[in-house]
Specification:
This protein starts with a helix and ends in a 9-residue tail after the last helix. It is built from 17 helices and 5 strands. The chain has 485 residues and is α/β, with parallel strands linked by helices.
């Protein structure tokens, strides 16, 4: 009995101890939880205070900036008003409009700044109601062009920069004025016609990168690029039909007389030549524009497009064909030209000659030198006279490339824009030649276009007989050359 009581007593003591232990653990966990919650509340309160301090500091900073901007704007307007009161100058209407626009832009900028610093709700409402955007234009210096545009700027310096005299430059500006002139707007003044033409001609004359042209003329790079293309398109569309055209009957008769006086060969109406203009590798049809001969000579991969031209004794172009790929030979370019279609289809060149190099085939209207080996004295003498006429075209292309240095470098523009630029260069070349604008000897270049004898060099038996008769007459009338001796 005593053992049973002792056992019950021990069991009871054990349960009592367990209950006391559980109660103590529960109290400890409760205290820890209360401490954690208290810490979180304190941290949240501290974070809230920090955010309030930051918002207050930001508002103060915005208020200071706003007040500073308003003060500067007010000071500027007061300064302008005082300056206008002290200096009463009879200004042109253009300058007055420009200053009034500047004042309006300053006031608009100040009001927009004030609006942007309003509450977020009002700001969002104004954005939704179509608030106009603020325009920003970078301030660039065009002091160099202003200096060149002065009436007392030296004529020689102007011609050295733009490859033509001031009078020729003024003529081009007048001719293009109706096409390229723009109107002033409320936001900005239009670029003057002279400024536009100067950017284009300078770019063509020097081949200078657009980023340097931009700095020189105080305009953006994209603006300069657009101006060059716009002016070139205007030159090609407006001036080409006036300054680059096939000669009429009277002009053709004078050309024949001049060429016959040089060579002794009658009925020559033009000297023909084809040159290559380097380009950047195109994205399509790369192999078509690959120039194998230039690549082998320069030991550098070359791509080009062709320019075929016919010139009169003065070196003025009377016909051009631009844009065929550089892998084509001279005879292939000729077959693709409108000149070939007119000659073979309409017979417009019947009874007259165009003198070409050995790269062209002998045809009823194309006269070329003898190319076979072991030439006779008569044939040598004929080749010498033909070479004198051919030299007229080659030298004209040399002046074209020397005057417009952009043709010596790989162009930066798109492939479809290159013919427009080349056409403008040919028209400007004609204007300079017609107005006797000389070219510095330092600018003249020697052309290195290789003549490839065509696969079918003889296209007409009658033309072969006519060439032999011309060579015979030159020799027996004492008109043949003797340099070959």
């Amino acid at each position: 009995m005593n053992n049973r009581d002792n056992y019950k007593r021990r069991i009871k003591e054990r349960f009592t101890d367990d209950e006391a232990s559980c109660s103590s653990d529960h109290e400890t966990k409760k205290k820890d939880l209360n401490g954690t919650i208290t810490s979180l509340l304190l941290l949240e309160e501290q974070d809230k205070r920090d955010r309030e301090d930051q918002n207050e500091a930001s508002n103060q900073e915005n208020s200071i900036l706003d007040s500073t901007h308003k003060r500067k704007t007010r000071t500027m307007l007061e300064f302008y008003s005082n300056l206008k009161d002290h200096y009463e100058i009879d200004e042109p209407d253009r300058i007055k409009r420009k200053k009034s626009r500047a004042m309006a832009a300053s006031i608009a900028a100040a009001s927009i700044n004030q609006t942007e610093n309003q509450s977020p709700n009002n700001h969002n409402k104004q954005l939704g109601s179509g608030q106009p955007r603020r325009l920003w234009v970078k301030d660039r210096s065009n002091a160099w062009w202003d200096e060149c545009n002065r009436p007392d700027y030296p004529e020689e310096e102007f011609k050295k920069a733009f490859r033509m005299s001031k009078s020729t430059f003024e003529l081009i500006c007048e001719e293009l004025n109706s096409v390229i002139a723009k109107e002033d707007t409320t936001l900005r003044n239009a670029i003057p016609v002279k400024h536009r033409v100067a950017v284009c001609i300078w770019r063509l004359a020097t081949g200078e990168p657009l980023r340097l042209v931009s700095k020189r003329f105080g305009l953006g790079i994209s603006t300069c690029h657009k101006l060059v293309l716009d002016v070139c398109s205007a030159i090609r569309s407006v001036l080409m039909r006036k300054y680059l055209q096939w000669p009429d009957e009277d002009s053709a008769r004078k050309i024949k007389e001049e060429y016959e006086g040089v060579s002794g060969i009658p009925n020559i109406v033009g000297s023909m030549y084809t040159t290559h203009i380097p380009i950047i590798a195109p994205k399509i049809s790369v192999s078509a524009y690959f120039n194998k001969r230039h690549t082998e000579r320069n030991q550098k991969t070359s791509y080009s497009i062709t320019v075929q031209g016919v010139v009169d004794p003065r070196g003025v172009f009377t016909d051009i064909c631009i844009g065929w790929p550089g892998s084509m030979n001279d005879d292939q370019v000729l077959e693709k030209s409108a000149l070939y279609q007119r000659a073979n289809g309409g017979g417009s060149l019947k009874g007259v000659w165009l003198v070409g190099s050995s790269g062209y085939p002998l045809m009823d209207w194309v006269l070329v030198p003898y190319t076979q080996q072991h030439l006779t004295w008569t044939q040598h003498a004929f080749n010498e006279k033909i070479g004198e006429i051919q030299r007229v075209a080659k030298e004209a292309f040399g002046r074209l490339k020397g005057r417009w240095c952009c043709l010596q470098k790989r162009t930066e523009g798109k492939l479809q824009d290159v013919p427009v630029v080349l056409g403008a260069c040919c028209v400007l070349h004609n204007i300079c030649e017609m107005r006797n604008e000389g070219i510095d000897t330092d600018l003249k270049i020697e052309l290195l276009d290789d003549d490839m004898v065509p696969e079918v060099a003889l296209r007409s038996v009658s033309s072969m007989k006519a060439r032999d008769a011309i060579a015979h007459n030159l020799l027996h009338h004492g008109l043949a050359g003797t340099a070959f001796l």
